[in-house]
Amino acid sequence: MMPLAIAASPILAFAPLVAAINWHSVFFLLFAVIACGFAIAVVAADNIVRMALYLVFSLGAVAGLFFLAGAEFVGAMQLMIYVGGTLVLLVFGVMLTAQTPFVAIKSSGGDRVLAGFVAAALFATLLLASLSVPAWRQPASGVVQAPTATPLGMALVGVRVDEAPAGSPKGGHSRRYLLPFEIISIHLLVVLVGAAYLARAKRRKTPRAIEVAASAEPPASVAAHAAHAKLGRSDRSSSVLTGGSE
Amino acid sequence: MTPLAAVMPLFGLITEPISVAHYLVVGAVLFTSGVACMALKRNALGVLMGIELVLNGANVNFVAFASPYLQSADGRSLGLDGDVIAVFVIVLAAAEAAVALAITLNFYNNHGTVDIDQADDLKG
């Protein structure tokens, strides 16, 4: 039957094949190939600017995978925080430090071979582990689920709306996330204050002080005595200051 | 029929519904790429990008185990826990990137390079 159909019309022969396509799997395959391909490209590239660009594509495709897995809130967070925030920060750092000798720092060949061996061994281990459990290879049987944004938001403020209430036999054991949410909020605040403190512009002390002292000297020779006295005083005070700081 | 049969194993990828194992393989690729990136890159920002890849590989696994579309919700699924952990991981990654970038910029200001092989001041 199949050869006959192929002989009659190739398009008709492909019609049942097209009908058999699971489009969820097709889009999963698309996003998975993009994510994995650009992740490998990040490793393979030497240019730091290109690495940042490949990372944008890879993380964006991972957001697509999150959407396909039904975690649209996590996918949106991935797009907004990662692709919109963290990577802008990274690209900012790349642009600030992209002097010509640092754009492409090459590793030695021995390091590459060693890292390749280690990565291959790690990947083989992870692949064996992820394919070894039969339950993980069985797809779900047609579950229709509501969007997760509302239950997630309610759980973050301490209310679970996605499960049975506490009185029923199956309910009452689920976690609430109000305390972790607060802890992570404080953590984020502390981290951002610390990052701003670390990255602030440093004041260079010694050359600036000399510069200020030199420019503060009055140029007129009439005030030379006063300036001399002031310089001596400032010298004394500065020596006292340095002595005190030491 | 022979070319079709040769293509058939690949065709099975797009006809059969996906499971958790598919996502785990993607997570394994991302994780391995990140580890290789961290080990191989000499640019400090490249190491940071490797860390981002590792965290994303872990996140893919969390979301896959939490997903009701990939696993029947009979107690094996992580449920909402996986999504919450994934969001927390994203936030922690943002915080880590901010601090690490500040450290990198400080290192660049002090040493004039971002090559982490030059960061050996603490070597005895």
CATH structural architecture of the largest domain in chain A: Up-down Bundle
Shape of chain B: elongated
Approximate shape of chain A:
extended
Helix/strand class of chain A: mainly alpha
**Which fold name corresponds to the CATH topology of the largest domain in chain A?**
Four Helix Bundle (Hemerythrin (Met), subunit A)
**β-sheet strand percentage of chain B:** under 5%
Into how many domains do the coordinates of chain A divide?
3
Poorly predicted runs of chain B: none
Radius of gyration of chain A: 32 Å
CATH class of the largest domain in chain A: Mainly Alpha
Q: Between the first and last Cα atoms of chain A, what is the distance in angstroms?
A: 95 Å
Instruction: Bin the helical content of chain A.
Output: over 70%
Instruction: Decide which structural class fits the backbone of chain B.
Output: mainly alpha
CATH-wise, what's the superfamily of the largest domain in chain A? NADH-ubiquinone/plastoquinone oxidoreductase chain 6, subunit NuoJ
The helix-strand sequence of chain A is HHHHHHHHHHH
Q: Gyration radius of chain B, to the nearest Å?
A: 20 Å
Order of helices and strands of chain B: HHHH
**Unreliable residue runs of chain A:** 219-246
CATH architecture of chain B: Orthogonal Bundle
Number of helices of chain B: 4
Overall pLDDT of chain A, averaged? 76
Describe this structure in words.
The complex is a heterodimer of chains A (246) and B (124). In chain A, 72% of the residues lie in helices and 0% in strands. By secondary structure, chain A is an all-alpha fold. Chain A folds into 3 domains: 8-110, NADH-ubiquinone/plastoquinone oxidoreductase chain 6, subunit NuoJ (Four Helix Bundle (Hemerythrin (Met), subunit A)), CATH 1.20.120.1200; 147-163 and 175-201; 216-245, no CATH class. Chain A starts with a helix and ends with a helix. Residues 219-246 of chain A have low confidence and may be disordered. Chain B has one domain (18-115): Helix Hairpins (Orthogonal Bundle), CATH 1.10.287.3510. Chain B has helices spanning 2-15, 20-40, 44-66, 80-111. In chain B, helix 2 runs antiparallel to helix 3. Chain B starts with a helix and ends in a 13-residue tail after the last helix. Chains A and B meet through helix 3, helix 4, helix 5, helix 7 and helix 8 of A and helix 1, helix 2, helix 3 and helix 4 of B.
